[in-house]
Write a structure and sequence with these properties.
It is a single chain. This protein has a single domain, classed as Alpha Horseshoe (Serine Threonine Protein Phosphatase 5, Tetratricopeptide repeat), CATH 1.25.40.10. Helix 3 packs antiparallel against helix 4 and helix 4 runs antiparallel to helix 5. By secondary structure, it is mostly helical. Helix content is 79%, strand content 0%. The protein contains six helices and no strands.
Amino acid sequence: MERKEKLQQLLKDDPTDNFLQHALALEYVKEGNDAEAKILFEAILERDPDYTGSYYHLAKLLERANDYPTAIAWYEKGMQRARTLKDMKTYNELQAAHEDIADL
């Protein structure tokens, strides 16, 4: 069984598991299925805004789609959340990515 199918199977037991959904979203990104990945990243962040790793990947996905304003907004939301959580590693990663596109 492939990784994607394993993750889908595990999600049947716990469909709101952030880790599993995030991992599945990354598998969709690898396949080029950004639409499905976007749905999962957004679902994670709606349910759990503290799952800060998903902000970066969602914003990167939006960058690839040339939706820079929305990507910037997600970077900023993630930076705010990371700062609140005192997660400076994630904050710095989001800030660096944000700076890369802020002037576009």
